[in-house]
Amino acid sequence: MLDILEDSLRYSALFILTLKVGIWTFALTKQKYLSSYPTKWFTVWIGCCASLALIEWVLVEYIFHDSFPYYTTHIRPFTKAHNVDHMTFLNPLHYFARFTFIGLFFRDLVKNKNWKAFFGYAVLGLIMFELIQVFVFKSYRGYDSVSPTVKNIFVLAGSGLMLYRIYIHPNISVTLHKNLYFWIFMGLFLPALAEVFLEFIFTKLYQTDTISFYKWYLVRNASQILGLILLMVGIWQYKFLRFLPKEY
Description:
The protein is mostly helical and 248 residues long. The protein is built from nine helices and no strands. Helix 7 (146-168) runs antiparallel to helix 8. The chain is globular and about 60 Å long.
């Protein structure tokens, strides 16, 4: 059972990597449309996600193995000496990227000056929070439930607000299903909603029940795949971007 779950996690992670790279590649080909709007921050964020996912895949598939020449002699002794879990040490970079670039995406798209200021300060505050997590609490050493919970609450609040403002905005030139922002925020909102609940399960199962942890992690990967598909649908609507309001 454990082998099957590990294979399923590996294949789902590879599919997620493929989707991230695909979205980033497509967004780069449409930069002349996206770079003049708040979507420029989305492109930077998905680029960071794709790059980090590719690095993680290379590390897991090729580097963190006994067959790799320097793993047993240099890498494994180093990670053990510093008490670092080599499967999670890159996670803080994901949080930095999301706090920064998704936060700037929210800030530049929202019209209300108070909300604009809030997201600007929130980006700075969350970066400081993650720096404390890394350098004070050493969150890179193992599974950290605090940072992903804060990340998901931030994304839920921001994308939920933007979905509401898109819904009430009196824009009759483009229908909702052609609204790039609607699909992007749905693609951010739904996985974050799922992960908020899953984090409580992960915290209990991480060191006590590996099989159940892997099963629920597959559910988490499925929610990410759904979100990425929605993001792809959103970017596909780039041609309608010029008909949309610059702020909501």
